[in-house]
């Protein structure tokens, strides 16, 4: 029997994770989070159930809109801070306080 398991590699920025504020606008929730875990993991940890599929950034099922703030792509380290930009929750982490249309 052969099994496979896939997960997103963690971006190694060299800086320690820090506490951030996450605002989920449609859910009307504001919570504490951190800058290391994926936004999908953090939303689920706070009781939200966003749509998702592969958890690797491939299927785009977890895509939502960034309302404000900045996110870091966990695969490449690229930053995105453009309001209205679609992001994939499973491969994005907060790079400071942010708001999502979730």
Structure summarized in a few sentences:
GO terms for molecular function: 2 iron, 2 sulfur cluster binding. The protein is mainly β and 102 residues long.
Topology, number of strands: 8
Give me the secondary-structure category: mainly beta
Low-confidence region ranges: none
Shape designation: globular
| SSE ordering | EEHEEEEEE
Put simply, the count of helices is: 1
The CATH architecture comes to Roll
The CATH topology corresponds to Ubiquitin-like (UB roll)
Q: What's the CATH class, please?
A: Alpha Beta
Strand content: 25-35%
Strand neighbour order, sheet with most strands: 2-1-8-3-6
CATH superfamily: Beta-grasp domain
Helix content range of the residues, please? under 10%
Q: What is the end-to-end distance? A: 39 Å
| Mean pLDDT across residues | 92
Count up the domains: 1
Return Rg in Å. Answer: 13 Å
Largest sheet: 5 strands, mixed
Organism: Pseudomonas aeruginosa
Pfam families: Fer2 (PF00111)
Protein name: Stearoyl-CoA 9-desaturase electron transfer partner
InterPro entries: 2Fe-2S_ferredoxin-like_sf (IPR036010), 2Fe-2S_ferredoxin-type (IPR001041), 2Fe2S_fd_BS (IPR006058), Beta-grasp_dom_sf (IPR012675)
Q: Can you lay out the helices and strands and say which pair or pack?
A:
Layout (H helix, E strand, L loop, with lengths): L18 E6 L4 E6 L4 H7 L17 E6 L2 E3 L5 E2 L5 E3 L3 E3 L3 E3 L2
Parallel strand pairs: 1-8
Antiparallel strand pairs: 1-2, 3-6, 3-8, 4-5, 4-7
Protein name: Stearoyl-CoA 9-desaturase electron transfer partner
Organism: Pseudomonas aeruginosa
Pfam families: Fer2
